[in-house]
Design a protein that fits this description.
Blueprint (H helix, E strand, L loop, with lengths): L8 E4 L5 H12 L3 E6 L3 H9 L7 E4 L5 H15 L4 E4 L14 H33 L3 E6 L3 H4 L5 H21 L4 E8 L2 E2 L4 H5 L3 H5 L8 E2 H11 L11 E4 L8
Parallel strand pairs: 1-2, 1-4, 2-3, 4-5, 5-6, 6-9, 7-8
Keywords: Oxidoreductase
GO molecular function: oxidoreductase activity
InterPro entries: NAD(P)-bd_dom_sf, Sc_DH/Rdtase_CS, SDR_fam
Length: 255
């Protein structure tokens, strides 16, 4: 199988801002062409697109909670790029819903939203992109964005922790089934890292406690996570297929 080190066709879901933007920039700086997906934040996605190095990138909108939306996103990305060699499943929701404070009707709705976006959209995009990679015949890479919370627990965001654990398991199943086609599948499990969304928490009263989670005394950066994603999508990382790479600054250790 021939997975090039650069010049690849890459679809990054949820690339409007935060980690998705950092991942898109990392691939573009590597010489790859990127389809920047957005759900509702089109203007922010255009900012991401404008910031990418190189040429030949594309903007792709669509609601991944709808299975037909996933089809439209992959079709549009493949048409714009001429195919798909790498998929990064980054799109996710993370809504606070501690059980003791959340009414049942809200609890049900939040769980359904997390499952639809975090898990089912990841599964659907993986199917659609992998089938294209198989038909192309050159192999490929799928990298899933999981979470430390899948192992440590998320008391205020239980649906997030549960769906990210499922994403890890999905990635390992696909790693086994897709290896004969030259497609490697891996996941990253980031701890707390800085983005626009969490800036108020890091800069606010709980900032010191968040930084103290790691013995390095800081939070991670989106660029650090993106660098790991870029490596897992590289030809050199094929033997890491099936891995779940912890990226948490030694804030949660497991063996």
């Amino acid at each position: 199988m021939n997975v090039p080190a650069s010049g690849r066709r890459v679809l990054v879901s949820g690339a409007s801002r935060g980690l998705g933007r950092a991942v898109a920039r990392a691939f573009a700086a590597n010489g790859d062409r990127v389809a920047v997906h957005f759900g509702s934040r089109e203007e922010e996605a255009r900012t991401t697109l404008a910031s990418l190095a190189g040429e030949g990138h594309a903007l792709v909108g669509g609601d991944l909670a709808d299975p037909s939306g996933a089809v439209a996103v992959v079709d549009a990305a493949a048409e714009a790029l001429g195919g798909i060699d790498v998929l990064v499943n980054n799109a996710a929701v993370n809504i606070r819903h501690p059980l003791a404070e959340t009414p049942y009707e809200e609890w049900v709705a939040v769980w359904q939203q997390h499952v639809a976006v975090n898990l089912l959209a990841t599964a659907n995009l993986s199917h659609l992109a992998a089938r294209r990679m198989i038909d192309q015949g050159g192999g490929g890479r799928i990298v899933n964005i999981g979470s430390r919370g899948a192992f440590r627990g998320e008391p205020d965001h239980p649906a997030y922790g549960a769906t990210k654990a499922a994403v890890h398991a999905l990635g390992q199943s696909l790693a086994v089934s897709l290896a004969p086609h030259g497609i490697a599948v891996a996941s990253v499990a980031p701890g707390f890292f800085a983005t626009e969304r969490v800036a108020p928490r890091v800069e606010g009263p709980e900032g010191d406690a968040i930084r103290a989670q790691s013995p390095f005394g800081r939070v991670g950066s989106a660029e650090e996570i993106a660098a790991a994603v870029l490596w897992l999508a590289s030809p050199a990382a094929e033997w890491s297929s099936g891995t779940i790479l912890d990226l948490n600054g030694a804030s949660h250790l497991r063996s």
